[in-house]
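queue> pop job 88
queue> type: inverse folding (structure -> sequence)
queue> payload:
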């Protein structure tokens, strides 16, 4: 076997840990990034090139959040409530993907537009699963916060 060179540890430090990639959130973010990239490529090759900006932005956002959650940036930077921003991103992405997928499938007749539409429907489902999971986490967090606050107010 070959010994890894000096660049191998540096490259491994850029990758998220294995436990995050195997976790549900890591898999959802990875699926969102891959699907958004495929949809972006399909829109570039199609007549519906005007729709390519939404998948590009979602690809970049999903990739950023994948590495941010993987490197635990959300725990280091507390100025932003990460689950709420992720929830809003997933809701808007699901709505936008659903709308542009319907437009791509119904309005354009080339194969790349149809493929982008089909992948867009799959991405809509993945984003919907992600915002459902994130919504359940938000509700649990809000219930925990609301149950603590009346007791604290009574004690004060």
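queue> result:
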């Amino acid at each position: 076997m070959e010994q890894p060179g000096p660049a191998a540890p540096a490259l491994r430090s850029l990758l998220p840990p294995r436990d995050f990639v195997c976790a549900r959130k890591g898999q959802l973010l990875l699926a969102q990034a891959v699907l958004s990239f495929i949809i972006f490529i399909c829109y570039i090759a199609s007549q519906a090139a005007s729709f390519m900006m939404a998948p590009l932005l979602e690809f970049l956002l999903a990739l950023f959040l994948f590495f941010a959650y993987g490197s635990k940036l959300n725990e280091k930077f507390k100025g932003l409530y990460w689950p709420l921003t992720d929830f809003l991103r997933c809701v808007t992405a699901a709505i936008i993907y659903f709308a542009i997928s319907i437009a791509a499938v119904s309005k354009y007749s080339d194969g790349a537009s149809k493929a982008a539409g089909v992948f867009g429907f799959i991405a809509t489902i993945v984003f919907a699963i992600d915002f459902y999971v994130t919504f359940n986490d938000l509700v649990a967090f809000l219930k925990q916060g609301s149950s603590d606050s009346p007791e604290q107010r009574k004690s004060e």
